[in-house]
Amino acid sequence: MNFYYKLKALKKQTTLKYLSSIFLIALLGACSPNNVTIDKQIATIFDSNKVTGSFALYDNGTGQFTIHNLVRYRDSAYSPASTFKIVNSLIGIETGRIVNEKMVIKWDGQVRSIIAWNKDLTMEEAFNVSAVPYFQEVARRIGKDTMKFWVDSIKYGNKNLGTSVDLFWLDNSLKITADEQMGLVKKLYFNQLPFQKRTQDIVRKIMVREQNANYKLAYKSGLGNKENGNNIGWMVGWIEENRHPYFFVLNIESAPGKDITSLRLTMLKAILQQQGFLEGKR
User: Which residue of 127, 190, 206, 243 has the smallest Cβ count within 10 Å?
Assistant: First the structure.
């Protein structure tokens, strides 16, 4: 092959690689310099609440990200805590360990500090009050090998299940980035996860927490601790206005002793309102 044909072949390979990259970015909605806006106004909400962290909002229609703290959002992994209930629910329903969202698991009689956990709960109720004991029992019924198969299949975080099938999402064995959380909820919304449509429909439905004439807000919260004792809070989900979905991930971190339980939702709504949501005008 002479130089001309070598050069032509090289150009063709380069073009194909470029087009493949563009296609992948478009398919996954991945961050790139061309579709990310760093919004400094969001930082004021973090500062006023004396927490650090990251926030990302993805406009599915335009493919644009609005982000606070891009490096943390993209590169730092943390325990998913109770946001893993999204995946636990999907696997439980897919494998038949959870029949549907109305399936009751009896209270084990152990009195816990969160009063809402101290009774028989349906899966939907347990999801809404983030009842750890319910989903620990689901995980035990699923079993470690089956759980590992599905966690690997959806490439969830570092895929590390540690040593205990009912603790790995709480004890820092399993870790995930905010960007990976975003990818999960986007795929769930569009029925693109490797589960049956019925399975995804049920989980998507129970994630909806607020619905009115202006918007539909769906999310799962999470609350955990880093190895250094700092608190980690999550809010992952989507907001719909005028039938148009926007996906979000909020990750906050505070020093030990600071109660961020209610702060997660307060901050999420403050940021969404700052971005022009919650009034049906988007």
Answer: 243
Residue 268 has pLDDT above 80, yes or no: yes
Distance CA 162, CA 135 (A): 17
Q: What tens digit of pLDDT does each residue of 96-114 get?
A: 999 999 999 999 999 999 9
| 36-274 is a CATH 3.40.710.10 domain | yes
Residue 22 CB burial class (10 angstroms; 0-12, 13-18, ≥19) = exposed
- Please report where in the chains the tokens 């992994």 appear, as a residue: 77
What is the pTM for the complete model shown? 0.88
pLDDT interval class at 241 (50, 70, 90): very high
How many Cβ atoms are within 10 Å of 89's Cβ, its own excluded? 24
Complete DSSP assignment for the chain: --HHHHHHHHHHHHHHHHHHHHHHHHHHT---TTSEEE-HHHHHHHHHTT-EEEEEEEETTTTEEEEE-HHHHHH-EE--GGGGHHHHHHHHHHTTSS-STT-EE---S---SSGGGSS-EEHHHHHHTT-HHHHHHHHHHH-HHHHHHHHHHTT-TT----S-TTTTTTTTSS-EEHHHHHHHHHHHHTT-SSS-HHHHHHHHHHTEEEE-SS-EEEEEEEEEE-TTS-EEEEEEEEEEETTEEEEEEEEEEE-TT---TTHHHHHHHHHHHHTT-SSS--
Domain boundaries along the sequence of the chain? 36-274
pLDDT confidence tier of residue 32, bands split at 50, 70 and 90:
low
Given 82, 89, 130, 221, the catalytic residue: 82
Q: Tell me, yes or no, if 82 is annotated catalytic.
A: yes
